[in-house]
Amino acid sequence: MFSKSIPLCFLLFCLLHHAASGASPLYHICFSEANYPGRSPYHANLDTMLNHLSTKVPPTGFGVASTGQGPNKVNGLALCRGDISSPKCKTCIIEASKELRARCPHKKGAIIWYDHCMLKYSNGNFFGQIDTTNKFHLWNTQSVSNPRPFNKNVNKFLSGLSDKASSNRKLYSTGELQLDKSKKLYGLVQCTRDLSRLECKKCLDVAMSELPKDSDAKRGGRVASGSCNFRYELSHFV
């Protein structure tokens, strides 16, 4: 089950603040218990690696980078949402780098999520591995009036998007589903491209199965991990 949950009042604040600023983090985790001293080789390698990601990621929306050797080696990964332009992707990665270092000072491993991007770094080699530890979920505060058919539609819709994403080169898919004459369901699923297509599908399936009961019949929700994410809404967001 998910270990990270966000109170509704905090969620409402985040959504309103994000809508106003366009650059508010959704969530972050300082997952490493190990620290590095300031002005150390690890600190210098972290700065170099993050700067490299801000240049490498925007053209394609995804990238990994490593800097240093031995105990001072830093591995990093960044992913931008599939519909985001290169300039917006670069802006998000740069902001994420600054914010993550401010929120997790001297930590050797941390991750941060924005609406437009995700950034992760660690002294361990995590490339190509499904991250099932670092994750969180958000959900809309409003519920639908017809929960049973809505939940069924959401599950079927997201499952279909998961199949499309795992067979897509970018491991990304969006779509919409007409629920009735006046209502549409919108969705997005995405994986980090260090995963295989099979691993992407597995990551998304696990994430979708772990959507918490608190989000049951909610008008929107999302689950994000260090390897994949999905989102659905009754309003257009992509």
TrEMBL record:
Entry's Gene Ontology cellular component terms: extracellular region
Record's keyword terms, sorted: Glycoprotein, Repeat, Secreted, Signal
Predominant location category: secreted
Localization terms from the record: Secreted
Pfam families (alphabetical): Stress-antifung
InterPro entries for this protein: CRR_secretory_protein, GNK2, GNK2_sf
Annotated ranges, domain Gnk2-homologous: 24-126, 132-237
Keyword Signal: yes
Cleaved signal peptide residues: 1-22
Keyword Glycoprotein carried by entry: yes
PANTHER family listed in its UniProt record: CYSTEINE-RICH REPEAT SECRETORY PROTEIN 38, CYSTEINE-RICH REPEAT SECRETORY PROTEIN 38-RELATED
Family assignment from sequence similarity: Belongs to the cysteine-rich repeat secretory protein family.
UniProt name for this protein: Putative Gnk2-like domain-containing protein
Source organism of this protein record: Rosa chinensis (China rose)
